[in-house]
Hints:
Blueprint: E1 10-12, E2 16-21, H1 27-41, E3 53-57, H2 58-65, E4 78-82, H3 87-92, E5 94-95, E6 98-99, E7 103-109, H4 116-128, E8 132-137, H5 153-158, H6 162-181, E9 186-188, E10 199-203, H7 212-226, E11 232-234, E12 240-249, E13 253-262, E14 264-266, E15 270-273, E16 280-283, E17 286-290, H8 293-296, E18 302-305, E19 307-309, E20 312-317, E21 329-332, H9 338-358
Parallel strand pairs: 2-4, 2-7, 7-8, 8-10, 9-10
Antiparallel strand pairs: 1-11, 3-4, 5-6, 12-13, 12-21, 13-20, 14-19, 15-16, 15-21, 17-18, 17-20
The chain binds guanosine-5'-diphosphate.
Guanosine-5'-diphosphate binds at residues 21, 23-29, 85, 137-138, 140-141, 205-207.
Amino acid sequence: xxxxDTHDPTSLRTPIVAVLGHVxxxxxxxxxxxxxxxxxEGEAGAITQHIGATAVPLDIISTIAGDLVDPDxxxxxxxxxxxxxxxxxxxxxxxxxxxxxxxxxxxxxxNDGFQPQTLEALDILKRSQTPFIVAANKIDTVPGWSVNEDxxxxxxxESQSDxxxxxxxxxxxxxxxxxxxxxxxxxxxxxxxxFQRNVGVVPVSAMTGEGVPDLLTVMMGLSQRYMKxxxxxxxSGPGVGTVLEVKEEKGFGKTVDIVLYDxxxxxxxxxxxxGQNDPIVTEVRALLQPRPLAEIRTExxxxxxxxxxxxxxxxxxxxxxxxxxxxxxxxxxxxxDLEDVIxxxxxxxxxxxxxxxxx
Length: 359
Ligand code: GDP
């Protein structure tokens, strides 16, 4: 960081990752695999529970990725995956008019290739100018494939027969060709020098975990290299986020699940939330995180926290949230003028309405 002033409250937040792709190409399986690997590696307790999102801290990425990642090369804290894959969540979740996700994974089934929703996803990524990589999924279904669970792609590729390698290469080059037809210069990720100009293709299996170390490494590298400036936030500033979902919760009434992408939110903060009619002004009664699975049987599903900093997924319990909308902005007022914050929320809602009308 150029500013070494110790009073500088600036910090680097976790990039927010979305997963897109055609139905059945493996979006959910890939997220499950990443979550599963992270939970196993994080048994010591390093995994933080989030609402609607999965945080994979850098040290866990580095354990999963083995030799591929040297944690000293990175200062971003990890990756935050939005748990709901697909276009709908991508297009409804905005931040300041842009995409909420900083970066995306486009999942393409190597056998099925490009399908209508693959093209739709590409179009959405292009319009929102979201950097992305392609996960060429289900490599384990190439006839003759021999599985090497959770290994980097190079290791498993080397252990396949010539025939199998050739079959996989053909499928991968087909995907690279399809990307090129859509105006994206693409290549296998290890050949890509500049990820801003070229789309990297990572062969993976969401089933066997092969290539998942590479996928996490590339995502981390891409974020670190090209998004670092955008990840600089004022950690102690008033929180800014987007509503993922509005949910009735026993004992709390209507709550909002939000992804916070800037600043912090605290218990008792006054917040402004985009509503179906007017912006809602309310006060945070509780910030709720999911409790680790093992403890749920004896206690409530959630535990209270006093404060959360970006990027994070959190459930907010507050009065008057009945009219809140998925996709709407949330802003913490803190030391600012309430009217200014209401105006900001209104302006953001208006820009979302315009974008939706254009679609
Ligand atoms: P989504 O609709 O994109 O979320 O796709 P899913 O994750 O639900 O996967 C669709 C189907 O493909 C499921 O039956 C998965 O088990 C299967 N699947 C997903 N990834 C893989 C993979 O890497 N290998 C194999 N063999 N099957 C997979």
